[in-house]
Queue: 4 jobs
Job 1
Amino acid sequence: MPLTPEQQAEIDALRATPRATLRAVSEGMEAHLYRAHEVLDHGFVRVIDYMGDDAAIVQAARVSYGAGTRKVNDDSGLIRYLMRHWHSTPFEMCEVKLHVKLPIFVARQWIRHRTANVNEYSARYSIMDREFYIPAAEHLAAQSTVNNQGRGATLQGDEAARVLEILKSDAARSYDHYEEMLSQDGQQGLARELARMNLPANIYTQWYWKTDLHNLFHFLRLRADPHAQYEIRVYAEAIARVVADWVPVAFGAFEDYRMGGVTLSAKAIAVLKRRLAGETVTQEDSGMSKGEWREFTEIWG
């Protein structure tokens, strides 16, 4: 169960007592406020608070650029201009605070984005819940033979069953031993900060994660990408759906220029110009490495 009864009661109470405000409000985001969007088997993402909307991006840009923005016909055009030309500061005027429940190994990937304020559940002070991420069978895969940090073919039959059983039994045994070691129920045992070292990386933790829209877009560009690890990608996809309702114009520009666009190197541009001129270009005379050429041809043929 992703939400505890206490958390659900808190959400119901908060949503039952709305207050009038003079600050900018995004109707799309209001629909998400406090609601938990379930992710994986026990995880969730929920919006705790936010600041700003599409209009806040425009407002900040017009303060910064002044008369120069009068050439832009409307707010949508200005936001697309900002995204197209990598003007990041106006997007930093919007912020969001999320409550996320996620496996520890996903959290360790996530925390590499060092552009947010984070406060995580402390296993020094509290006892961790017996909740582990156990992949569905379709997400059990062997190591990729072409990518050292990716997955290959999906495990089948007896091999999938064997791996699942190991994951489940190891998680349960580790937690049993964690409970047995704790200083509780009259035994001296270990302090919580020491007993936690025996817990597996697939146990769930929780944190509050606050960031601005510019850095959130950077997170989504990397983690909502099809090449990202599935377990963090589904969190990014859940967040992306929320952001699409929060700042629809900015998110549309982000999808167009960042998620749907590509960045070309000087060598790639030169190759395209030669191709357009009718020249046949090979990897050997392109000036690109084999890896660069492979990525180039995956897009351009």
Job 2
Amino acid sequence: MGMTRRNILSLGGAGLVAAAAGKAWGQSLPAILNQRYPDPSVEILDPSFAKYRIYSASVEKLGTGMRWAEGPAYFPEERCLLLSDIPNNRIMKYDEVNDTFTVFRSPANFSNGNARDREGRLITCEHSITRRVTRTEKNGSITVLADAFEGKRLNAPNDVVVKSDGTIWFTDPLFGINGYYEGEKETPEQSTTNVYRIDSDGKLTAIITDLVNPNGLAFSPDEKKLYVVEWKGTPNRSIWSYDVGADGTVSNKAKLVDAADFGALDGFRVDRDGNLWCGYGSNGALKDEPTGTDTAGRKIYELKGKPEDLDGVMVFNPEGKPIGFIRLPERCANLAFGGPNGNRLYMASSHSLYALYVGAQGAV
């Protein structure tokens, strides 16, 4: 039995429930987080965002039971979403027709980012153990697209996007080999953390080499701009913009978004109007001085930004101005547009998967 909204509502206080050999996960919580219209979780920060809020659409909770949800990718042929549950070393599948949430692949080499290529195949960043980018063929076999650069192993492939010409672009920070929670701790072999391009002939090129732990990436609708999140080193998390040449090179690096020193930009997607829909939350930074003491007189250092104020999706216009915010009860790491019309926003958020119908469509 798959976990559906009907099942969830009928289970009452049963807690976390595993169905069918432990492969379907759900929680006895209402699927709709807010009953009011318009949903107060969808905040308009600039009047230009109003047209993207659907008055009678609410944030829905579709599945839970993950430890760190990441890398959602939508497959219109099957009307399903695949996303990674990194610490649990598996890829999950949400079927939007049957409203089921099941395990797609386990183990999954601590997969992180996923994407659909132009032939409908799954592209996956395996960011620990194997440390490679793979393609799942239609028959289920796995093809390795990249696992080394200039004779040295990749760091930990993180996020990936496929350009209309079939080239595959991915980031390669250190996260997957920094410890034992999202993989295995290992010593990096690359001297830099790069953004790479895989050409149709399989050639691997380091396109950007001066970012400290590049993370999410996406193209503008016309693919003349490449946007990349830098996790650290600017000093705040930032989104950098690059002009993309006809030969696949990039130039004219410019900062588009600079998060506050407590804000965490992560994965993101771009809509057809060029807006950036970004996973957002607290980066865990502490205030420089203690803000008080506990009952035993010990100093307490609080976060610079409260997660409950930051968790969700921040939307920036093409000029980098924040215009909207979707407030979630969990930090959103990454997202994807899906649904038959490309206007259902899927949000991979810590332990759970959320969705919201919006007045925007994902850029293809």
Job 3
Amino acid sequence: MGLALLIVAAVLFLFIAVVLAKTIRIVPQARAAIVERFGKYKNTLSPGLNIVVPFIDKVRYVIDMREQVVSFPPQPVITEDNLVVSIDTVIYFQVTDPVAATYEIANYIQAVEQLTMTTLRNIVGGMDLEETLTSRDEINTRLRGVLDEATGKWGIRVNRVELKGIDPPPSIKDSMEKQMRADRDKRALILTAEGERQSAILTAEGQKQSAILTAEGDRESQILRAQADRESQILRAQGEGQAIQTVFQAIHDGQPDQSLLAYQYLQMMPKIAEGDANKVWIVPSEIGKALEGLGSTMNDLKGIPQEVEGPLKRVDMGPSEPKVPETGGTSGSSNAAVQAAIEEAAKAANPGRARAESTERPQGDAE
């Protein structure tokens, strides 16, 4: 009897546990549970603790309400220029109506995949290869518009469509690489040419500036050289003027006469004989008379007196010039020096006559 009661209690406890399990349903966050009563849709359970009628209500599906990402395998697509390319797509979608996603379509993921492939073939079929490779944004926009419109009645919203990869055939890849390499070589040549042009322009401008600076330097150098020559000529002329003035002053200080001119003539005679064309030089015996005639000829020269009477008036040369002392016996000493020079020249020219005169002179002195 006690064992029977124990078995009944265990069965009753198990029945209560099963009833509670069928009655209480916990739905996770961002999920939606579809409840059916006798195979017909009854309601949708929200996240949290929910109570259903056991053995009558049944949770058929639990729908994920979060945004889902589905990547489809590469699919061959033919472009307008009859080239086959493989395109990978990625779809971002979200279930907005769990009832429609449950009862309007059997498998909404497979339906989205097939719809994506057919729409993609339709869009890419109207483009050539180059346009397909460069128009990803346009393809994504058109594909999203078609998918969003078709999946709206399924309770699905397509948020974003991305082309993960577009792979052309290997031969097209090789051609594209060659074209890209040619374009890069062309750009490199263009950049090199532009660099050489800029270099040539800068070099020409530098040479121009250098030539301008050189010309300006030559002009300034010539101007400075001309100024230096002018100042040098001026200083040289001033020096020559001062030298002439000094010589003229010295002549006035020396008080020259006819005897001094005759003495200067005798000093110039050896220099006259030094010429290359003078092969023979004859000194006449009447050199004394010739010198006397020279002296008599010099008497007629204007401005040169026969004899000087006292010192002449000195030309004022300024306080820096030395003063020459005035002497009264200059005329006599100059005449005596000239006479002595004449006698020595006559003796050298005619030794016999000089000896005769020397023998006759004592007699005259004695008389």
Job 4
Amino acid sequence: MSAVNDTKLKSIKFLLTGLPSHRDTHLWISIPFCFMYVISITGNSVILFIVKTDPSLHEPMYIFLSMLAVTDLGLSITTIPTILGIYLFNSREISLDACLAQVFFIHLLQYIESSVLLLMAFDRFIAIHNPLRYAFILTPPRIAKMGLVAVLRAMVLILPLPFLLKRFQYCRANVLSHSYCLFQEVMKMACSDITVNSIYGLFTKLFQMGLDSMLIFLSYVMILKTVLSIASHKECLRALNTCVSHLCALLLFYTPEISLSKSSPFLQILLGYISLLVPPLINPIVYSLKSKHLRAKIIRMFIK
């Protein structure tokens, strides 16, 4: 009986969809996705290479930026192949195991990115509130420990998800509305009671992204409090200017997530693409434009 069940589980297939369109337009739709993929991989790889090879960039802000770049690279590599598979090769089928692996990595990387954005908010608070002790507080070993805690917390929360989904029987059409597998969508395909999964999914979301967003908000309240106490208007603007890149990254990450639950099906698909594909594309561009030091290094690398 167990062997029969294992065979059934292995034979389960999900159908990925995405933006509603005719087959003859798929090639045109794939062009922007290819463009985003190439720019995301190239942009984040360039940032990682420059930060690693240039000792002058071995500062807390750039180390956190490297963490963000690694996470964004992971998200691009995890999601884009199945998207391009649909629009370039009309390959819509995905096995249960491959789908569960994608669920694990997408949600793991999203939760790690949420933690990295929190660490970057803490970095900006220390830099503005206590600039003289900034390098002493955020030492490389301490940053490494903070990064490890962020990864472990996300891992502990996300690891049960594939196992919770694997125990289900799937007896529906198994047609997913996105071009990749997400926990909530796969869960809804089950013909079993999903109460435990729903509660756990909500708990992880609140404990990770809910808590992180609240702590980020508190960090910025403290930053504003510190900035407003600065007598010089010029110094005040300079301090706030160091937060612009991080604020852009926060808006790109959290805005689609907040809007997803209150949208039409088409808008949900579109916001799903934006939440997973746009941050890896835009983050390296924004940070390169806003950081004079990093921008100069990138220009010098390509001129050589």
